[in-house]
Amino acid sequence: MRRLAVATLDANWEHDHTVPSRTLYPHQWSWDSAFIAIGWSHVRPERAWCELASLFRAQWVDGRVPHIVFNPALRVGSYFPGPEFWESGLAEGAPAAATSGLIQPPVHAPAAWLAYRRCPSEQARAALRRLYPRLVAQQRYLATRRDVGGGGLACIVHPWESGLDNSPAWDAPMAAVPADAAVMRAYRRHDTAHADVAHRPTDLDYARYVAIVASYRERRYRDDDLAGRHPFLVECPLVNAAMGAAEHALARIAPLVGADPGPHRERAARITEALVRRLYDPTTGTFHPRDLRADRLVPARTVLGLAPLVLPDLPAQQVSTLVAEACSPRFGLAARMDRPLPSHDRTAPDFEPLRYWRGPSWMNVNWLVRRGLLRHGRPDLAAGLRDSMIELVARSGCHEYFHPDTGVGLGSPAFGWTAALLLDVLADDPAG
Predict the structure, then answer these.
(1) Which of 170, 134, 144, 117 minimizes the C-alpha distance to 53?
(2) Residues in domain Mannosylglycerate hydrolase MGH1-like glycoside hydrolase (predicted)?
(3) Which helix (H) or strand (E) covers residue 24, if one does?
């Protein structure tokens, strides 16, 4: 299995970064690169630092790290939505490289810390020193430009920014976005040429995705009037939990690069407090996204609600209720798991075991939940999740995602973060 994972990463290596997949995702994706760097740190640590450096070279002047960095060697039209759709070069402060204008969960500082811990060296410390101010700028962008609700949390402006693109968590806020499925006749979707249409977002979903991007692109991706004009504004538990975890990681990195860890610890505490205050529902015992347009929590119970377990300072009450939620029939976490952890409540009427993020099991979310369980003293449940993750790949290979009942591989084969995080759980080092 280790050889399979390394071979998958090697096959996806593209001179200074790793593509998620050669077929479906031929460019560089933001949070994919963070997870992939963790895998590289176990076998080729120099590639871990090259991966992160490559991504952050495309950071915007305002601090945002774009969710896609496009490979200029690929022909126009080979991927949708490609650089000609985003038009990032027209935006103030965009990099020379063609990118999207959106972000993804800021899991990069924890990835950098883990890469250093896996293989500490003077070269790794120098790489950390170069990366640190960019990681700080990324956090500053989210904490300032994106605090649209004024409550101390970052908001996402598109479902793609959550990483869980097609989650049922976005159905309610997306329903308010005007769009017509006929819009998609003007474009050629790339994803459905490489994956089963029944597994992917619908054309109506894609029409809404396009409409949201168009709204942001018209203002050249400025964030100064999001509250007044933008059609999709949501505070996401995963994005904000990742932002808090990033501050904890930066507090560990800071002494290594001659910086003060204190401000990072203070910001981490503020983010955790804001998450509990704004996104936790004591009735359901889990976290929910907050739709800022409607000023209410989204009722869907998805794996997003378990993400705050990654925060080491999450209060004991919330840890207890999240563990209960994870172990309930909705998600089925156990020390010995009969089925993989799903991405959505498997008892819900809109649970779809085949469709992207609406039920299938994903290696990266499982990895995040596992780390949270280890942080909060539940090695028994973490071991069950680890065994389940390894079994998925043993049965089906390094697929993009997996059927939440049978474990059959779905989406793209030879997927980067599945291979990378398999290497990490095989190493089974819970520290860091």
Answers:
(1) 134
(2) 25-418
(3) none
- Residue 186: per-residue pLDDT: 58
* Structural domain boundaries in the chain: 2-427
DSSP state of 73: T
> Which residue, chain included where needed, has tokens 């990895």?
367
Q: Return d(Cα 352, Cα 371) in angstroms, integer.
A: 26
Strand partners, 29: 68
Q: Quick check: 106 and 239 in contact, CB under 8 A? A: yes
Task: Answer for the pair 402, 409: CB distance below 8 angstroms, yes or no.
Answer: yes
Q: CA–CA separation, 331 vs 372, rounded Å?
A: 15
Average pLDDT of the segment spanning 254-276: 98
- In sequence order, the 6+-apart residues with CB closer than 8 A to the CB of 284 are 301, 305, 325
Token representation of residue 38: 């963790």
Catalytic residues: 165, 400
CATH class of the domain comprising 2-427: mainly alpha
Closest alpha carbon to 47 in 11, 2, 68, 17:
17
Identity of residue 250: L
Summarised one tens digit per residue, pLDDT across range 143-183 is 999 999 999 999 999 999 999 999 999 999 999 998 765 56
Distances, alpha carbon 367 to alpha carbons 132, 254, 364, 425, in Å:
24, 25, 5, 8
pTM over 0.90? The answer is yes
Measured CA to CA, the distance from residue 227 to residue 216 in angstroms comes to 12
The answer to whether 50 touches 115, Cβ cutoff 8 Å, is no
